[in-house]
Amino acid sequence: MNAPGKWFPHPWLSLLLLGVWQLLVNDLSAGSLIMGAILGWVIPLLTHAFWPDPPKLHRPWVLVRFVFRVLGDILFANFEVAKLILGASSRLQPAFVVYPLELRNEFGIGVLATTISLTPGTVSADVSEDHRTLLIHGLDVPDEQELIDTIKQRYEKPLIEVFECSTT
Amino acid sequence: MLHNVIILCLGMISVAMLLNLLRLFKGPDLPDRVLALDTLYVNAIAMIILMGLLLRSNLYFEAALLIAVMGFVGTVAVAKYLLRGDIIE
Amino acid sequence: METAIEWLVAALLLLGSLFALIGSFGLFKLPDFYMRLHGPTKATTLGVGSLVLASMIYFSTTGEVGLHELLITLFLFITAPTSACMLAKAAMQVHAARVERTRGEPWEQ
Question: Which residues cross the membrane (chain A) (predicted)?
Protein backbone atom coordinates (compact mmCIF):
# COMPACT_ATOMS: atom_id res chain seq x y z
CA MET A 1 0.00 0.00 0.00
CA ASN A 2 1.41 3.42 -0.89
CA ALA A 3 1.95 6.17 1.63
CA PRO A 4 -1.17 8.38 1.10
CA GLY A 5 -3.33 5.25 1.11
CA LYS A 6 -1.90 4.28 4.47
CA TRP A 7 -2.22 7.65 6.16
CA PHE A 8 -5.52 8.64 4.54
CA PRO A 9 -7.39 5.41 3.87
CA HIS A 10 -10.64 7.27 3.15
CA PRO A 11 -9.96 10.75 1.76
CA TRP A 12 -13.64 11.50 1.08
CA LEU A 13 -14.64 10.49 4.60
CA SER A 14 -11.91 12.77 5.98
CA LEU A 15 -13.22 15.70 3.95
CA LEU A 16 -16.79 14.96 5.07
CA LEU A 17 -15.76 14.86 8.73
CA LEU A 18 -13.92 18.16 8.38
CA GLY A 19 -17.00 19.73 6.77
CA VAL A 20 -19.39 18.42 9.42
CA TRP A 21 -17.08 19.62 12.20
CA GLN A 22 -16.98 23.09 10.66
CA LEU A 23 -20.79 23.17 10.52
CA LEU A 24 -21.06 21.92 14.09
CA VAL A 25 -18.79 24.53 15.69
CA ASN A 26 -20.25 27.13 13.28
CA ASP A 27 -17.16 29.33 13.47
CA LEU A 28 -14.40 29.52 10.90
CA SER A 29 -11.18 29.92 12.86
CA ALA A 30 -7.71 28.39 12.75
CA GLY A 31 -8.34 26.40 15.91
CA SER A 32 -11.52 24.76 14.67
CA LEU A 33 -9.92 24.03 11.30
CA ILE A 34 -6.99 22.27 13.00
CA MET A 35 -9.34 20.31 15.27
CA GLY A 36 -11.44 19.30 12.26
CA ALA A 37 -8.36 18.22 10.37
CA ILE A 38 -7.18 16.10 13.31
CA LEU A 39 -10.63 14.47 13.61
CA GLY A 40 -10.78 13.89 9.88
CA TRP A 41 -7.41 12.22 10.07
CA VAL A 42 -7.84 10.09 13.22
CA ILE A 43 -11.44 8.84 12.87
CA PRO A 44 -10.93 7.09 9.48
CA LEU A 45 -7.79 5.43 10.86
CA LEU A 46 -9.64 4.17 13.95
CA THR A 47 -12.72 2.98 12.07
CA HIS A 48 -10.75 1.46 9.21
CA ALA A 49 -11.88 -2.05 10.16
CA PHE A 50 -15.57 -1.18 9.66
CA TRP A 51 -15.11 -0.20 6.02
CA PRO A 52 -14.10 -3.38 4.25
CA ASP A 53 -14.95 -2.07 0.79
CA PRO A 54 -14.09 1.64 0.54
CA PRO A 55 -16.09 3.31 -2.24
CA LYS A 56 -14.01 4.67 -5.06
CA LEU A 57 -15.42 7.63 -6.92
CA HIS A 58 -14.67 7.36 -10.59
CA ARG A 59 -16.60 10.32 -11.90
CA PRO A 60 -17.34 12.82 -9.12
CA TRP A 61 -19.13 15.27 -11.41
CA VAL A 62 -21.69 12.60 -12.30
CA LEU A 63 -22.33 12.23 -8.57
CA VAL A 64 -22.87 15.99 -8.21
CA ARG A 65 -25.38 15.94 -11.06
CA PHE A 66 -27.03 12.90 -9.49
CA VAL A 67 -27.39 14.67 -6.12
CA PHE A 68 -29.10 17.67 -7.71
CA ARG A 69 -31.42 15.46 -9.72
CA VAL A 70 -32.38 13.54 -6.56
CA LEU A 71 -33.02 16.78 -4.65
CA GLY A 72 -35.34 17.92 -7.43
CA ASP A 73 -37.08 14.55 -7.44
CA ILE A 74 -37.56 14.67 -3.66
CA LEU A 75 -39.45 17.95 -4.02
CA PHE A 76 -41.55 16.55 -6.85
CA ALA A 77 -42.09 13.25 -5.00
CA ASN A 78 -43.53 15.02 -2.01
CA PHE A 79 -46.23 16.74 -4.00
CA GLU A 80 -47.07 13.35 -5.54
CA VAL A 81 -47.22 11.62 -2.16
CA ALA A 82 -49.25 14.47 -0.69
CA LYS A 83 -51.76 14.07 -3.52
CA LEU A 84 -51.90 10.30 -2.96
CA ILE A 85 -52.39 10.69 0.79
CA LEU A 86 -55.11 13.31 0.47
CA GLY A 87 -56.95 11.37 -2.26
CA ALA A 88 -59.22 8.39 -1.70
CA SER A 89 -57.07 5.67 -0.16
CA SER A 90 -59.29 2.88 -1.52
CA ARG A 91 -58.12 3.72 -5.04
CA LEU A 92 -54.40 3.19 -4.29
CA GLN A 93 -52.70 0.09 -5.63
CA PRO A 94 -49.92 -0.84 -3.20
CA ALA A 95 -47.43 -3.49 -4.31
CA PHE A 96 -44.21 -5.20 -3.29
CA VAL A 97 -41.81 -5.12 -6.22
CA VAL A 98 -38.67 -7.23 -6.47
CA TYR A 99 -35.97 -5.14 -8.08
CA PRO A 100 -32.97 -6.89 -9.73
CA LEU A 101 -29.75 -5.03 -8.90
CA GLU A 102 -26.96 -4.49 -11.40
CA LEU A 103 -24.82 -2.57 -8.92
CA ARG A 104 -22.36 -4.75 -7.04
CA ASN A 105 -20.65 -2.17 -4.85
CA GLU A 106 -22.15 -2.30 -1.34
CA PHE A 107 -21.88 1.42 -0.71
CA GLY A 108 -23.56 2.05 -4.07
CA ILE A 109 -26.41 -0.28 -3.11
CA GLY A 110 -26.83 1.68 0.12
CA VAL A 111 -27.02 4.97 -1.77
CA LEU A 112 -29.53 3.49 -4.22
CA ALA A 113 -31.74 2.17 -1.40
CA THR A 114 -31.69 5.57 0.31
CA THR A 115 -32.57 7.30 -2.95
CA ILE A 116 -35.47 4.94 -3.58
CA SER A 117 -36.81 5.57 -0.09
CA LEU A 118 -36.74 9.33 -0.57
CA THR A 119 -38.28 9.51 -4.06
CA PRO A 120 -41.77 9.00 -5.57
CA GLY A 121 -44.03 6.70 -3.60
CA THR A 122 -41.50 3.95 -2.94
CA VAL A 123 -39.72 2.64 0.16
CA SER A 124 -36.94 0.08 -0.08
CA ALA A 125 -37.79 -2.57 2.48
CA ASP A 126 -35.07 -5.18 2.28
CA VAL A 127 -32.04 -6.39 0.38
CA SER A 128 -31.52 -10.08 -0.30
CA GLU A 129 -28.73 -12.02 1.42
CA ASP A 130 -26.63 -12.26 -1.75
CA HIS A 131 -27.09 -8.52 -2.48
CA ARG A 132 -28.62 -9.17 -5.90
CA THR A 133 -32.19 -7.96 -5.40
CA LEU A 134 -33.99 -5.23 -3.51
CA LEU A 135 -37.51 -5.47 -2.15
CA ILE A 136 -39.43 -2.25 -2.75
CA HIS A 137 -42.85 -1.28 -1.47
CA GLY A 138 -44.74 1.16 -3.66
CA LEU A 139 -47.68 3.22 -2.45
CA ASP A 140 -49.39 3.33 -5.84
CA VAL A 141 -47.98 1.09 -8.55
CA PRO A 142 -50.14 0.61 -11.65
CA ASP A 143 -47.31 -1.17 -13.52
CA GLU A 144 -44.38 -2.94 -11.83
CA GLN A 145 -42.17 -3.14 -14.92
CA GLU A 146 -42.48 0.58 -15.56
CA LEU A 147 -41.33 1.35 -12.01
CA ILE A 148 -38.31 -0.96 -12.36
CA ASP A 149 -37.36 0.64 -15.68
CA THR A 150 -37.66 4.15 -14.27
CA ILE A 151 -35.43 3.39 -11.29
CA LYS A 152 -32.92 1.63 -13.51
CA GLN A 153 -32.68 4.50 -16.00
CA ARG A 154 -32.86 7.39 -13.58
CA TYR A 155 -30.91 6.28 -10.54
CA GLU A 156 -29.00 3.05 -11.02
CA LYS A 157 -27.23 3.97 -14.29
CA PRO A 158 -25.48 7.08 -12.86
CA LEU A 159 -24.57 5.21 -9.67
CA ILE A 160 -22.97 2.43 -11.69
CA GLU A 161 -21.02 5.09 -13.56
CA VAL A 162 -19.80 6.63 -10.30
CA PHE A 163 -19.00 3.60 -8.17
CA GLU A 164 -17.91 1.02 -10.69
CA CYS A 165 -15.44 1.59 -13.44
CA SER A 166 -17.92 0.51 -16.09
CA THR A 167 -16.51 -0.48 -19.45
CA THR A 168 -19.65 0.53 -21.30
CA MET B 1 -46.89 39.10 10.18
CA LEU B 2 -44.18 36.54 10.79
CA HIS B 3 -45.29 36.17 14.40
CA ASN B 4 -48.80 35.16 13.33
CA VAL B 5 -47.47 32.76 10.71
CA ILE B 6 -45.29 31.05 13.32
CA ILE B 7 -48.26 30.68 15.66
CA LEU B 8 -50.29 29.16 12.82
CA CYS B 9 -47.45 26.75 12.01
CA LEU B 10 -47.18 25.74 15.67
CA GLY B 11 -50.90 24.95 15.55
CA MET B 12 -50.48 22.79 12.45
CA ILE B 13 -47.59 20.86 14.01
CA SER B 14 -49.69 20.36 17.15
CA VAL B 15 -52.48 18.84 15.08
CA ALA B 16 -49.91 16.60 13.37
CA MET B 17 -48.62 15.42 16.77
CA LEU B 18 -52.17 14.75 17.90
CA LEU B 19 -52.73 12.52 14.85
CA ASN B 20 -49.47 10.69 15.67
CA LEU B 21 -50.67 10.15 19.23
CA LEU B 22 -53.96 8.70 17.97
CA ARG B 23 -52.01 6.28 15.79
CA LEU B 24 -49.78 5.46 18.75
CA PHE B 25 -52.81 4.46 20.83
CA LYS B 26 -54.62 2.74 17.98
CA GLY B 27 -51.78 1.08 16.04
CA PRO B 28 -52.71 -2.58 15.56
CA ASP B 29 -49.11 -3.84 15.43
CA LEU B 30 -45.96 -2.93 17.31
CA PRO B 31 -44.17 -1.50 14.23
CA ASP B 32 -47.07 0.94 13.83
CA ARG B 33 -46.49 2.26 17.32
CA VAL B 34 -42.75 2.57 16.75
CA LEU B 35 -43.40 4.45 13.50
CA ALA B 36 -45.76 6.79 15.35
CA LEU B 37 -43.07 7.48 17.97
CA ASP B 38 -40.54 8.08 15.20
CA THR B 39 -42.81 10.63 13.54
CA LEU B 40 -43.52 12.17 16.93
CA TYR B 41 -39.86 12.98 17.53
CA VAL B 42 -39.41 14.43 14.03
CA ASN B 43 -42.40 16.67 14.71
CA ALA B 44 -40.87 17.62 18.05
CA ILE B 45 -37.79 18.83 16.14
CA ALA B 46 -40.07 20.93 13.93
CA MET B 47 -41.73 22.40 17.00
CA ILE B 48 -38.41 23.26 18.66
CA ILE B 49 -37.20 25.01 15.50
CA LEU B 50 -40.44 27.03 15.41
CA MET B 51 -40.01 27.95 19.09
CA GLY B 52 -36.47 29.10 18.31
CA LEU B 53 -37.86 31.35 15.58
CA LEU B 54 -40.62 32.66 17.82
CA LEU B 55 -38.23 33.55 20.66
CA ARG B 56 -35.50 34.69 18.26
CA SER B 57 -32.94 32.51 19.96
CA ASN B 58 -30.23 30.46 18.33
CA LEU B 59 -29.86 28.17 21.35
CA TYR B 60 -32.65 25.84 20.33
CA PHE B 61 -30.54 24.38 17.56
CA GLU B 62 -28.52 22.15 19.91
CA ALA B 63 -31.67 20.70 21.45
CA ALA B 64 -33.11 19.93 18.01
CA LEU B 65 -29.90 18.21 16.88
CA LEU B 66 -29.74 16.14 20.07
CA ILE B 67 -33.35 15.02 19.66
CA ALA B 68 -32.60 14.05 16.05
CA VAL B 69 -29.63 11.91 17.09
CA MET B 70 -31.30 10.29 20.11
CA GLY B 71 -34.56 9.65 18.26
CA PHE B 72 -32.78 7.88 15.42
CA VAL B 73 -30.81 5.68 17.81
CA GLY B 74 -33.98 4.88 19.73
CA THR B 75 -35.96 3.94 16.62
CA VAL B 76 -33.20 1.71 15.29
CA ALA B 77 -32.76 0.03 18.68
CA VAL B 78 -36.47 -0.76 18.99
CA ALA B 79 -36.69 -1.94 15.37
CA LYS B 80 -33.69 -4.16 15.95
CA TYR B 81 -35.34 -5.55 19.07
CA LEU B 82 -38.50 -6.37 17.12
CA LEU B 83 -36.39 -7.95 14.39
CA ARG B 84 -34.16 -10.18 16.49
CA GLY B 85 -35.48 -10.11 20.05
CA ASP B 86 -32.11 -8.66 21.03
CA ILE B 87 -30.45 -5.28 20.54
CA ILE B 88 -26.76 -6.15 20.64
CA GLU B 89 -25.89 -9.43 19.02
CA MET C 1 -35.89 43.92 0.85
CA GLU C 2 -36.66 43.00 4.42
CA THR C 3 -40.26 42.27 3.60
CA ALA C 4 -39.27 40.07 0.66
CA ILE C 5 -37.20 37.90 2.99
CA GLU C 6 -40.04 37.88 5.50
CA TRP C 7 -42.47 36.67 2.82
CA LEU C 8 -40.00 33.96 1.77
CA VAL C 9 -39.56 32.77 5.36
CA ALA C 10 -43.31 32.75 5.91
CA ALA C 11 -43.91 30.76 2.71
CA LEU C 12 -41.25 28.18 3.64
CA LEU C 13 -42.65 27.87 7.16
CA LEU C 14 -46.20 27.30 5.89
CA LEU C 15 -45.02 24.80 3.28
CA GLY C 16 -42.97 22.88 5.84
CA SER C 17 -45.74 22.71 8.42
CA LEU C 18 -48.21 21.68 5.74
CA PHE C 19 -45.97 18.79 4.67
CA ALA C 20 -45.44 17.69 8.27
CA LEU C 21 -49.20 17.76 8.77
CA ILE C 22 -49.80 15.76 5.58
CA GLY C 23 -47.21 13.18 6.66
CA SER C 24 -48.93 12.69 10.01
CA PHE C 25 -52.33 12.63 8.34
CA GLY C 26 -51.07 9.84 6.08
CA LEU C 27 -49.81 7.98 9.14
CA PHE C 28 -53.24 8.30 10.67
CA LYS C 29 -55.38 7.56 7.65
CA LEU C 30 -53.76 4.97 5.37
CA PRO C 31 -55.01 1.41 5.83
CA ASP C 32 -51.93 -0.77 6.41
CA PHE C 33 -48.46 -0.49 7.92
CA TYR C 34 -46.44 -0.57 4.72
CA MET C 35 -48.51 2.25 3.23
CA ARG C 36 -48.30 4.25 6.44
CA LEU C 37 -44.51 4.06 6.15
CA HIS C 38 -44.59 6.43 3.16
CA GLY C 39 -46.03 9.49 4.89
CA PRO C 40 -43.46 10.01 7.65
CA THR C 41 -40.39 9.03 5.61
CA LYS C 42 -41.03 11.51 2.82
CA ALA C 43 -43.48 14.26 3.69
CA THR C 44 -42.42 14.81 7.31
CA THR C 45 -38.72 14.76 6.47
CA LEU C 46 -39.13 17.37 3.74
CA GLY C 47 -41.37 19.41 6.03
CA VAL C 48 -38.71 19.65 8.72
CA GLY C 49 -36.10 20.34 6.04
CA SER C 50 -38.15 23.27 4.81
CA LEU C 51 -38.62 24.62 8.36
CA VAL C 52 -34.87 24.42 8.94
CA LEU C 53 -34.22 26.30 5.71
CA ALA C 54 -36.66 29.01 6.78
CA SER C 55 -34.97 29.30 10.17
CA MET C 56 -31.57 29.55 8.49
CA ILE C 57 -32.70 32.38 6.18
CA TYR C 58 -34.34 34.19 9.09
CA PHE C 59 -31.27 34.04 11.34
CA SER C 60 -28.98 35.08 8.50
CA THR C 61 -30.83 38.44 8.37
CA THR C 62 -30.15 39.09 12.05
CA GLY C 63 -26.42 38.98 11.48
CA GLU C 64 -25.66 35.57 12.92
CA VAL C 65 -24.72 33.83 9.72
CA GLY C 66 -24.70 30.11 10.31
CA LEU C 67 -25.09 27.06 8.18
CA HIS C 68 -25.14 24.69 11.12
CA GLU C 69 -28.89 24.16 10.93
CA LEU C 70 -28.19 22.32 7.70
CA LEU C 71 -26.77 19.51 9.85
CA ILE C 72 -30.27 18.67 11.12
CA THR C 73 -31.62 18.42 7.56
CA LEU C 74 -28.64 16.38 6.42
CA PHE C 75 -28.96 14.05 9.38
CA LEU C 76 -32.71 13.56 8.87
CA PHE C 77 -32.31 12.90 5.16
CA ILE C 78 -29.71 10.22 5.89
CA THR C 79 -31.50 8.58 8.82
CA ALA C 80 -35.14 8.58 7.65
CA PRO C 81 -34.65 5.90 4.96
CA THR C 82 -32.54 3.82 7.34
CA SER C 83 -35.16 3.74 10.07
CA ALA C 84 -37.89 3.14 7.47
CA CYS C 85 -35.97 0.13 6.16
CA MET C 86 -35.41 -1.23 9.69
CA LEU C 87 -39.10 -0.81 10.53
CA ALA C 88 -40.17 -2.50 7.27
CA LYS C 89 -37.91 -5.46 8.07
CA ALA C 90 -39.33 -5.64 11.59
CA ALA C 91 -42.88 -5.52 10.21
CA MET C 92 -42.13 -8.38 7.82
CA GLN C 93 -40.70 -10.31 10.76
CA VAL C 94 -43.85 -9.95 12.88
CA HIS C 95 -46.15 -10.41 9.83
CA ALA C 96 -47.84 -7.03 10.05
CA ALA C 97 -51.28 -7.00 8.41
CA ARG C 98 -51.54 -5.63 4.88
CA VAL C 99 -54.53 -4.83 2.67
CA GLU C 100 -55.62 -7.69 0.42
CA ARG C 101 -55.14 -5.84 -2.84
CA THR C 102 -51.37 -5.50 -2.25
CA ARG C 103 -49.62 -7.29 -5.08
CA GLY C 104 -46.38 -9.17 -4.51
CA GLU C 105 -45.21 -10.84 -1.34
CA PRO C 106 -42.96 -9.63 1.48
CA TRP C 107 -39.88 -11.78 2.03
CA GLU C 108 -39.18 -14.25 4.75
CA GLN C 109 -35.53 -14.18 5.67
Answer: 7-24, 30-51
